[in-house]
Amino acid sequence: MPKAICFEQFGGPEVMKWMDIEVPEPGPGEARIRHKAVGVNFVDVYQRSGLYKVPLPSIAGNEGAGIVEAVGAGVTLVKPGDRVAYAGVMGAYCEVRNIKAERLCLLPDDISFAQAAAMMLKGLTVQYLIRRTYRVEAGDTVVFHAAAGGVGTIACQWLRMLGAKVIGTAGSEAKCKLARQNGADFCVDYRRENILERVQEITGGAGAAVVYDSVGKDTFETSLKSLSPRGLMVSFGNASGPVPPLDLLLLSQLGSLYVTRPTLATYIAQRSDLEEAAAELFGVVASGAVKIEINQQYPLQDAPKAHQDLEGRKTTGSTILLTD
Ligand code: NDP
């Protein structure tokens, strides 16, 4: 019987249990895939903790890569034996699952299952953030928080490729060093340094055109203050806790700012958007401009330990779970 990491109540990493599951034949429009590797993302933590309400019981996880074993009626996009990967479909921490075939991307030969599991959700996120939410151009000053994390590591490299001036932030000197190696021109150790002062110093008081903030509660207001007039605040995560309600007048006082709170689901809802974004992601990886750093690997059943490390800020780059 296939196994999965399930949770029946919200809570800490310990609510996740290694269990047998039944996987029926794929229904119409579905494919059954056998995972080779599964990605670990901060959204998995929000869903497990109950910050994002999901049905109970649930299988954790939102990203995986593997081989198609069978397809249901009407499926033409993939066939048994295909190497595939996906992002943003809950129920990934398992050996075998059924999934809507239209959510699957065929993997190019030069991308391994491990790489795919480490980059689909994070890389597609970076694609929409820096190519679509705000189209970063050469010379733009960009602040990117948590720059040594999974999303941050891909973002720094991609932003370097675009010629942006990147001010990263991270929670230790070692993480800042990693962010700089990945393309951040500067990195502020926000446990030691004042972000706003450093951004003002680096930009000569002009501020940044766009701030990408996934830290949330702890950094939101500083991020707004780090923007140039008419700058864009992209609040895309809550690693330190959810952002409190916003007084819109603050946006006028700080210089006619824009704020958006985007989510990957919206940006890949259409199959055409998913295909275009994935092609662009595979392209930057194939070109060597973006390297996927898998800095933590665990057996699938050790997902609770992977969550402890991610929440404990002990990880850098991407984390994956291996099925065998
Ligand atoms: P990361 O690998 O970036 O891990 C999160 C990082 O956040 C930590 O390593 C830590 O880095 C930083 N952090 C700051 N404060 C805290 C805190 N109090 N507790 C824990 N971590 C903290 O995770 P991911 O790459 O998976 O995701 C990055 C962010 O992007 C997450 O917030 C996630 O929710 C968001 N996201 C949003 C998406 C969207 O579409 N809206 C899609 C994908 C991801 P440091 O120690 O350097 O501060």
Automatic annotation (TrEMBL):
Entries under Gene3D superfamilies matching the protein: Medium-chain alcohol dehydrogenases, catalytic domain, NAD(P)-binding Rossmann-like Domain
Domain of life: Bacteria
Polar residues compositional bias, start-end: 315-324
Keyword annotations: NADP, Oxidoreductase
Any one Gene Ontology molecular-function term assigned to this protein's record: quinone reductase (NADPH) activity
Regions of compositional bias (Basic and acidic residues) in chain numbering: 304-314
Annotated Enoyl reductase (ER) domain residues: 11-321
Chain spans, region Disordered: 303-324
InterPro entries membership: ADH-like_C, ADH-like_N, ER, GroES-like_sf, NAD(P)-bd_dom_sf, QOR-like
UniProt keyword Heme, yes or no: no
Keyword Ligase: no
Secretion signal span: none
Protein name in the entry: Quinone oxidoreductase
GO cellular component labels: cytosol
Cross-referenced SUPFAM superfamilies: GroES-like (SSF50129), NAD(P)-binding Rossmann-fold domains (SSF51735)
Organism: Geomonas terrae
